[in-house]
Design brief:
The chain is built from nine helices and 27 strands. It has 526 residues and is an alpha+beta fold. The N and C termini lie far apart (47 Å). Pfam families: DMFA2_C (PF20254).
């Protein structure tokens, strides 16, 4: 039986120990964060005030201890294009080099690698730094007419050594006198067997990335310019805003919570799920961290096969597995072009219908997301409380949650519902059943749990704001206790083995009288 986990989490503030790797290539050291075990050869201390206390020493065997660097945040973004960049891999294993492509208006710049997670607090630990780099203003972005794809052809500015970088989610902070930006990178775990695998959904980050004026949602006139949007987006460009994608806004609280809990973890991106069909073999669980909307056939097949061999699955955001994508090569490598025609004319119609990039639930080969997630995307935007309907579930053990408990602002802006009118797992248990009103139509958002014959269990939060309830996201009081306790119970059970066998679903769908269909679409006559 899985113990109630929340009390143990409150009392545990130990720094995370992660496995070290082999000696880094000689370029610049992985510096020691004050008070920790070093991970590389001698290095000069970085010049910036954020790292004045960083020291370095020789590599030592054993775990690499990292601690929070309180100066990891961007404090001076600067004007547009002051400095920006992108990496030519979304993930690398420790020891693999990755090219960093940077454009800046300044004469010099520097870069610091921060591993993001839990170090007695949520934030970043400094792992590596390089200063004194010559700045170059790179050529303007190119625009491919037929697909409205924005891409750059910037040369490699710097090769990053990753041999001493522990696996995890990273932000590379670019600093120049004219401004600062982030570049995200995942250092992929060398193996996933026996671990809970955390997945950064970079295909969804890229789908919403409007750098250069285009995304899969908008053209140069903004979000209303759907007709002129991109139908293919490239990873060969920076992310807009501060450059961090959705790592800081959506993924980091869950990563920090999992690290704080101390379960065995592995780190990948959804591109890794696409490229490596064996990446989940032997894993205990796979967890998509937040909004994870854009899936290729290979991604979906990898997770479905894993579930059917006993690997637990969690979808911690809503609207998962909704858009069907293809991935293609660019000049910088494989799977760096993301194709999604949505409802426009995909050239594969009638040629390869199974790979047409409409929504997964739509023709020509409909495969609703509910077959995997258990829930069905319905509408946005909403802002509503999460309402507990099944407090007897093992997921609420130790949280003090009672029937009808309302946790404000945890449902939104997109939500899912268990819909008996679409393919849905037979043994499914609705955990929260939260009234919402979307586009004037009343409905519900549901979180749910189901099990399969392999013994695996599948959890879906039903809301993109679920992680807002974590203490690592700043939640307090009852909300932090309940949501943090739920996630702790889930991850501990996942780490122990097939959680569906240990905690079989208690079907309760019949008593909820769920609407069979989409009430919002029905109200609009669709």
């Amino acid at each position: 039986m899985v113990r109630g986990a929340w009390g143990a989490v409150i009392g545990s503030l130990a720094s995370l120990a992660v496995c070290g790797a082999s000696q880094a290539p000689a370029m610049r050291a992985a510096p020691r964060v004050a008070g920790t075990t070093s991970a590389g050869p001698t290095s000069a201390a970085p010049r910036t005030s954020s790292t004045d206390r960083v020291r370095s020493s020789r590599a030592q065997a054993g775990p690499v201890q990292l601690r929070l660097d309180p100066h990891w945040r961007i404090t001076h973004r600067g004007p547009d294009h002051a400095i920006e960049g992108w990496a030519d891999h979304t993930s690398v294993r420790p020891g693999e080099r990755v090219g960093l492509h940077v454009s800046t208006t300044a004469a010099t710049w520097e870069v610091t690698a921060y591993r993001m997670g839990w170090y007695g607090a949520v934030g970043g630990a400094l792992v590596w730094h390089r200063a004194g780099l010559r700045g170059t203003r790179q050529p303007p972005a190119r625009h491919d007419g037929p697909t409205s794809t924005v891409r750059t052809q910037w040369p490699t500015s710097l090769l990053l050594p990753t041999g001493q970088w522990p696996p995890g989610a990273y932000l590379l902070r670019l600093d120049s006198p004219s401004g600062q930006r982030f570049v995200p990178l995942t250092v992929r775990s060398p193996e996933t067997a026996g671990r809970v695998v955390l997945v950064d959904g970079v295909t969804t980050w890229q789908a919403y990335n409007a750098w250069g004026g285009y995304s899969l949602y908008q053209g140069p006139a903004g979000k209303a310019d759907f007709a002129h949007r991109s139908t293919a987006v490239s990873f060969d460009r920076p992310y807009d805003g501060d450059g961090s994608g959705q790592l800081l806004t959506l993924d980091l609280p869950t990563i920090a919570h999992a690290e704080r809990l101390g379960v065995p973890l592995a780190y990948v991106t959804d591109i890794d799920l696409h490229m490596d069909p064996t990446v989940l073999v032997g894993a205990r669980a796979v967890v998509t961290l937040a909004h994870d909307e854009y899936w290729s056939s290979a991604m979906r097949l990898a997770v479905t096969r894993a579930r059917d061999t006993g690997v637990n699955v969690a979808f911690l955001g809503a609207n998962a597995v909704f858009r069907h994508i293809r991935l293609a090569r660019t000049r910088y490598g494989p799977d760096r072009l993301e194709v999604n025609y949505k409802r426009l004319n995909d050239p594969l119609v009638g040629v390869d219908d199974a790979e047409v990039t409409t929504d997964w639930r739509e023709p020509p080969v409909p495969r609703p997301e509910s077959e995997l997630t258990g829930v069905f995307y319905e509408c946005n935007p909403v802002d509503a409380p999460l309402v507990v309907t099944d407090p007897g579930s093992w997921l609420f053990a130790g949280t003090g949650a009672g029937a009808g408990l309302r946790l404000p602002h945890l449902v939104g802006p997109e939500y899912d519902r268990v819909n008996p009118g679409v393919p849905t797992p037979r043994r499914i248990e609705v955990l929260s059943h939260s009234p919402v009103r979307c586009r004037g139509v009343p409905s519900f958002s549901d979180s749910a749990w189901y099990d399969v014959p392999s013994g695996a269990g599948v959890f879906a939060s039903g809301s993109n704001w679920f992680a807002r309830g974590l203490p690592e996201a700043g939640a307090t009081g009852v909300t932090a206790r309940v949501v943090g306790g739920m996630l702790s119970n889930l991850l501990l059970a996942f780490a122990a083995g097939p959680a569906g066998a240990a905690h079989p679903a208690q079907p309760n769908l019949a008593g909820l009288h769920e609407y069979a269909g989409d009430p919002v679409a029905a109200a609009s006559g669709q």
